[in-house]
Amino acid sequence: MTLRTRITIAAATAVAVAIVLAAAAAYTATSSTLHGQIDNQLVTQAQVALRRFSSPGGSFVGGPQPGDFGGAGGFDQVVTATGQIEDVPSNRQPLPVPASSAAVAAAGTGSRFATISTGGVVLRVLAVPIGGGLALQVAQPLTAVNETLANLRQQLILIGLAGIALAAVSGAIVGARGVRPVTMLASSVDHVARTGDLSDRKSTRL
To answer: Would you tell me how many other CB atoms lie within 10 Å of the CB of residue 33?
Structure first.
């Protein structure tokens, strides 16, 4: 492998690695922010549902809940320590009960998040204790978050490929310029070796 090739590969690899790391960091930060927003929404949703559950004379009916101003809503249900569902009407499809939600009902303290999948939909779930061996489980679909992240992945892949192509071109340019002084010096040495003429001044003009 020639020196020029090695310099080209090294330069292109360095730029490509930098692009990949930057893309990965951007994706991770965006994913963390979006999932954090869902978790915050679940905390608020649980607080609202707890008020409905504990209000004197109030009624609590589990199942899909309407969102604010016509937006996407969530899902509420009460579960037991054995994973049974207490309050979802028979005409409503209940959510699966992850072990973490049943554990919250059994412990009566703390709260736990989980991610579940049902009917082809991925949901983020929060369980909070309500006493008596019960826990309130609230959920939000991750459909919008996953779609956003999928689009972001596609964009980052395209940007990454373009960046890697640019890195290859830049590496070739850097490689050509990097070996030029060495090539000129080798030419001068070869000229002196063949002719004994020391008047060649190429090496002084690198």
So the answer is: 10
Query: Which stretch of DSSP H or E encloses residue 9?
Result: helix 3-54
Provide CB contacts within 8 A for 113, sequence distance 6+: 39, 42, 100, 124, 125, 126
Distance (Å) of CA 1 to CA 4, 10, 176: 8, 12, 14
Please state the pTM of the whole predicted model: 0.70
The whole-number pLDDT of residue 90 equals: 66
Which region, left, alpha or beta, applies to residue 67 given φ > 0 means left and ψ of -120 to 50 means alpha? beta
Average pLDDT over residues 6-14: 74
Cα–chain center distance at 18: 18
Residue 199, phi then psi, degrees to nearest 5: -80, -10
What pLDDT band is residue 179 in, cutting at 50, 70 and 90? low
